[in-house]
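Researcher: Next entry in the queue.
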Amino acid sequence: MTRGEDTVTFNEILSQTLIMLQQHGRVSYRALRRQFNLDADSPDDLKDALLYAYPQVLEDANHGLIWTAASPAAIQSAQHGTADEGRFHALLRVVVALLQRERRVSYRELIYLFDLDEALLENVRVELRFKHLARDEAGKGLVWTGPEISLLFNEAAVQEAVLTDTPLDEPIDTQQPVHSPPEAERRQLTVMFCDLVGSTDLAGHLDPGAVHLSYMALILWLSGYPEQAQHTSHAALTLAQSLTHLLSQARGVFFAAWLHRLLGDVRMAHTLIDTAMQQCTEQGFALYQAFSEILHGWAVVMQGDYEATIPQMRQGLEDARTLGAELLQPWLLVLLAELHGQRREYQDALTVLAEALARVERTSERWCEAELYRLKGTFLILQSTENQCEAEGCFQRALDVARHQLAKSLELRAAMSLSRLWQQQGKRDEARELLASLYRWFTEGFDTADLQEAASLLDELAG
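Model: Structure for this entry, 463 residues:
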């Protein structure tokens, strides 16, 4: 590539384009061609590289690129205590999604949903205006002015099954066009959720605020912010319970239970899932009832009752599959594998994990892929100490996957499993170095189960 008389490498142009995005919020492909004297194919190469490497970058309808994270000035402000960068980035993304769906959002609603103070609200307002994504409306709220691109992952086919008990493989009649999200957003969201085929606009049957907050809570936990995840989950549950829409209420309770399961709070997960099961049974929400039965079985086992749950969990899996649901199947199989592990049925656990990994490859629902490999390694060791080599490979694979997904919470779990193995093998220093560097990354959630376990293991390794 050339710029004037100078030869410029692709990586140099990539770095300068990233700086332009961070400084200006967006950049057009035409501007890139002129700035760097690019040939016809080079903007596409830059776009592909940036969308793959930076989830913060979105494409603006083939016209250019948008930077959706905080600007350098806002990040510097956050680092000085005005707002946490991780929470600020998450807030921007969920407010953008709400604005795209609702077209306008009042400041009162934002303050209620996210418990914002005036300084953080002002930062959100400044960032969205800076990126030309929203404008202030008479000091009362924000109005969407950005491009017509969908940031919504689509649960539509699942909602069809929930609302009508129609299997997902049956034709769905809709007159509404379907717009696919841009590749950068697809990459981030399909890490967690499968890319459903046959999507429609039926996701509109759910309250958009509750939907976004529920998923954002899970994303925050995966990203390594467990306290913010709990705060967001509480906001989602509060909003869902304030609605008269029964499906949004039941779904909100189920997702809150899901988060507490990830946090290791078995008692609260059990309490919430009991409520979700009751609501789904009373209202006939067949799919979420099936999901809830599986999570309920897991919670019962984790509290010491090993006998009566496997039939319940398998029935829940079968009910979900009968409805045609592929969504969440790998994660639901994780719960079943953990149940077999608690019963010391390690070969059964490994068989279930093999099925889950096969589904991951078939559906690309990869958000729990790292956990699948970590558990596979764990059960291999429990099955036989002769499996240590294969188990170490599984733990390394789990680490690689979690790092690629920027899933710090799953990376911490994988690091703990590998550190324990290295400790048993006499590689104490390597184990401590691996875990300590990751543990230092976290800034919150030190009273959660995973971080407490990590702290205890570090104490052992330091002894």
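Model: The first strand starts at residue 2 and ends at 3.
Researcher: Noted, moving on.
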